[in-house]
Amino acid sequence: QKYFDSGDYNMAKAKMKNKQLPSAGPDKNLVTGDHIPTPQDLPQRKSSLVTSKLAG
After folding, report:
1. Are 13 and 6 contacting, i.e. CB atoms less than 8 angstroms apart?
2. H helix count then E strand count, the chain
3. What is the dihedral of CA 46, 49, 55, 56, to 10 degrees?
4. pTM of this structure
5. CA distance 54 to 56
6. Which three-class secondary structure state does DSSP give residue 38?
7. Per-residue pLDDT tens digits for 16-54
8. Residue ranges in the chain assigned as alpha helix (H)
9. How far apart are CA 16 and CA 8, in angstroms?
């Protein structure tokens, strides 16, 4: 196997390492970033009746 450059070598080395790892099943909680939340998606924040001791 001849490598084009060090980056090519490192990518090949990483692929070899990935093959040895046991393949896990698909993660059900995988966040893909396909959905971009809008303000309508977020729950409305309720105004607190208790004044924070940290404020002021």
Report:
1. no
2. 1, 0
3. 140
4. 0.28
5. 6
6. coil
7. 766 554 555 555 566 666 777 777 777 777 766 666 677
8. 6-20
9. 13
Q: Measured in whole angstroms, how far is the alpha carbon of residue 4 from the centre of its chain?
A: 31
Residue with tokens 């303000």: 39
- Contact call for residues 1 and 12 (beta carbons, < 8 A): yes
Residue listed under structure tokens 């971009």: 36
List, as one string, the DSSP characters of 4-19.
Answer: SSHHHHHHHHHHHHHH
Q: Are 12 and 3 in contact (CB under 8 A)?
A: yes
Place of tokens 């450059």: 5
pLDDT score for 17 = 66
Tokens 């309508």 sit at which residue? 40
Residue type (1 letter), 44: Q
